[in-house]
Structures are given as structure tokens and as C-alpha cells.
Amino acid sequence: MIPVVEQHHCSKRHRNSTYFARCAWPGASVTGRGQLAIVITCPDARVVLVERLRWAHTLLAEFNVFGCGPGCEGAHEIVAIDLDPDLPPFPAQRSPNPEERPR
């Protein structure tokens, strides 16, 4: 199960995952795009956004095997970013009918 992150450090509703990640993990460099994030909290804090779960697992495996850089502590994880906590985090889980969505 992939943890879902919906908490960040301000009261804004962020337009995309990049803005959300910059707010949720201040000081970390943010690259890529997508609602899945590989969060690296080693001394060189980074967030790598990806669009597909398979890509996230592949990249996480590379970080875990080869490290993320000098001083790597192995502190890497995959999380899903929830830009709208009122709706399920992944489009496949959302109802196709807008009338059925919670408000």
C-alpha cells in the first residue's frame, strides 16, 4: 500500500504536484511531474515526481541499490500526492459521473 500525502505547509489548494511537493517538503529539490513521488530524505533532500507506479518502483529500486548520492542513508519512499482530498487520489478510482462525486 502506498501512503497518500495530503498535508502540506500552507492553506492554499495547489494546482499541481510540483507546487504541492515544494510546499510539503520545503528545502527539497523537486523534479519531474506526476502524482507519485519518490521522497528522498537523505542529507540531499529531493522529491522526484513520476506519472506511473512502475516508474516509481523502478526508480526507487535504483536508489535503494545504488544510493541517491554521497551520504545516502537509504531514506527513500514512494508516496501518492492527493491534490484534492475530497476525491479519491487516482483517476481510476473516481466516479465517471460528476453527480456522484462528494462535494
Topology record:
Elements: E1 4-5, H1 17-24, E2 29-32, E3 36-40, E4 46-50, H2 53-66, E5 76-81
Region (Disordered): 84-103
Structure description:
Residues 84-103 are annotated as: Disordered. A hairpin with a 5-residue loop joins strand 3 and strand 4. It contains two helices and five strands. The protein is of the alpha/beta class. It is globular and about 35 Å long. The protein has one domain (4-85). The chain has a five-stranded mixed beta sheet, with helices on both faces. The relative contact order is 0.22.
Mean of pLDDT: 85
Rg over C-alpha atoms, rounded to the nearest angstrom: 15 Å
Strand content: 15-25%
Termini separation (Å)? 26 Å
Strand order of the largest sheet: 1-5-3-4-2
Estimated structural class: alpha/beta
Number of strands: 5
The helix tally amounts to 2
Helix content: 10-25%
Region (Disordered): 84-103
Task: Please provide a brief summary of the model.
With 103 residues, the protein is α/β, with parallel strands linked by helices. Helix content is 21%, strand content 21%. The chain has helices at 17-24, 53-66, and strands at 4-5, 29-32, 36-40, 46-50, 76-81.
